[in-house]
Structure formats: C-alpha cells, structure tokens
Amino acid sequence: MLQNVSAVLSDTGDALLTGDHAYHAEKDSDKNSSVDLRLGTLWDGDGGLKNILANADDNDGTDDEDGVIFPAFGNLVGSTFNLLINIQQEFDNGRQIHAWIDFDGNGVLNNTTEKIITDISAIEGDNSYPITIPNNAKLGNRYLRVRLCSSGETCDTQGGKTYDGEVEDHLIRIGDIDFGDAPDTTASTGADDYLTLDSNGDSYQFVHPDLYIGSTAPDADQGILQDATATADNLDSTDDESGLNLIPIQNLSTDYKLYIPTTNNTGATATLIGWIDFNNNGQFEDSEGQIASVPSGVTQVNTELEWNAISPSNQPYLFIRLRLIDRAVTNITEVSSLST
C-alpha cells in the first residue's frame, strides 16, 4: 500500500557552538502552514546550517529570525540593555523562553553562568527583559541564543530536541566599536569607494583602552561616518587618528616604509596590519598588506611596516587602512580588512 507522508521540518540553531544542537520540530496542528508557536512572524525549516555569523538560517531562503530585538551598539561590560522577544501562536499550550549569551566566547553556553532568561510563563506578544552584561564578559561578537517552546516541552538547555516552537541565534556586540571612515558611496567597491559603513559590512574594532594606534585611544562610533578624505571619524568628537606621520608615496616608488606609533598594554602580543590600495580599486587586498608584531608593554612605540615591489596608481592620493588586533598573526591571510 502506498501512502503520501508529509516530511516534518525542523528549525535548528545556526551559531557555531560546541555541543548538542538545538532542534525544534515543526508543529502545525491545524495544517494551515503556520506553526503553532514561533518567535516573531516567520518560521522556516532548515537543514542544520551553521556559520560563524549565525546567519546561515537567515540566508537559506526565508529570514525567519525576526522575533528577537536588541541594541546594535552600547552593549558595554557592566551595563544593562533591553532584550525584546516577540511570541506568536496559533494555539495556547503555554509558553517558555530560555536564552543564553556566550559571554566568555568559548563556544559553549553555560547553563549556570551564561543563561540570561528562564521564563516559564511568557506571554503572547512582546516580552521585555533587562539583561546585565557581567564585568568578566569578553569584548567582541558573542553568540546569543533564544529558545521558545510550549509548557509541555523541554527547551531549557543549549541543545536538545523539542517538538514545537523555535530557536533563534544572533551575534551581539559587547563593547564599544571603532569603524573606518574611508569613502563609501555605494554597497559595492570601486575607485574611491570602499566598504566602510556598518550597513555595507565594514571592518571594525572593539575599543580597548590599552591597545591603539597613534597618540590617542580610539573613540566609539556606529559605522555611519565616511567622507572623501577619510577624516569623518576624526571630526566627530575625538580625533583618534592623530599622531601619524604618513609620508607621501611617489608615483615611481617601488618601496614604501612607515613607522606607526602603537600602544599595547594588554598583556599579550598584538599585530599591526596595514593595507594600501595601490591600484585604487576600492579593495584592501592581501597582496597590498603588511603585518608586524607588537609586544605587550609598549606605549606609542614606532612599529615598522614596509612594502616592497609596489606599483602605485597614478592618483593624487591613495587610501590606507590600519588595524591593531589583540592576537598574534603570522600571515596576512589570517586577518581580513573587512572583519573584526
């Protein structure tokens, strides 16, 4: 005997976390193509996709991660922010919300120290939770996981199977952020047109008071500053790009050297990276970059970057991007001009 059997879809977490996978089976009791219980308006099944940005589920066809809202900026260590979670339902079987943030960045959501919400009586509609970031949280992009299931199911741990509801994973930025300010007039790249704005995927650094370039520690901004001379960040409040002596590049130069004052009092080796867009195509490419190690315990010490066998574009000016990161790097391919 042949029968038609409908496959049961499932929604899974898409963050690159270690351990058991969060799995929420589709439950659509009245078969109206709308699941009984969900975060936000949308729900789709996925095939267990994961990536480092926790947006693999967003990009697989339907961006269904629309039920969790939090501030993009200002989530500082020791501060409190508001986490808004929207629940929509077809049937009332009770609602429970559980949420975690990977504060230490180790890829595991600790149920004791990193669980931020346990709510077994959540309401339909908007649920608002004040979340305090602990003083020992590490700066950077950290995974936030929210799980929703009905009262009769179990979803109170990082992973495991449950048979209704939904899971959403997000990246939350912890710490102040410093962006670049090279000209950015479109969402693509070209001559004098870089990926600078946050909306276009610019590189950014989490501000560390003991790790900076030049004579002034960086100030925070929100990735909305750019202009034709790459000075928009300098003019917004604090000129945190001061103390640099960028000597001109001659059109016929084959070598170029800079001495960049750097400060590193983090207790670990850092790396200075510099890219110069020699061909003026709006991209800071690996072939245009140089790196130098910066030991801990130095304050405004000149760090040398040298480019050899260069062929500069015949332009009135070229753009340079400098990054000082809090880890040791031995090859330019290990760090991007367009990521944290």
Task: Describe what is shown at a glance.
With 340 residues, this protein is an all-beta fold. The protein has one helix at residues 232-236; strands at residues 10-12, 22-25, 37-39, 68-69, 80-89, 96-101, 115-119, 125-132, 140-149, 160-162, 166-174, 177-179, 204-206, 211-213, 255-264, 270-276, 289-294, 298-308, 320-325.
What's the arrangement of secondary structure elements?
Layout: E1 10-12, E2 22-25, E3 37-39, E4 68-69, E5 80-89, E6 96-101, E7 115-119, E8 125-132, E9 140-149, E10 160-162, E11 166-174, E12 177-179, E13 204-206, E14 211-213, H1 232-236, E15 255-264, E16 270-276, E17 289-294, E18 298-308, E19 320-325
Parallel strand pairs: 2-10
Antiparallel strand pairs: 1-2, 3-5, 4-5, 5-8, 6-7, 6-9, 9-11, 12-13, 14-15, 15-18, 16-17, 16-19
* Uncertain regions spanning at least 5 consecutive residues: 1-7
Straight-line distance between termini: 57 Å
The number of distinct β-strands equals 19
Q: Total helix count? A: 1
- Helical content, roughly? under 10%
CA-based gyration radius: 24 Å
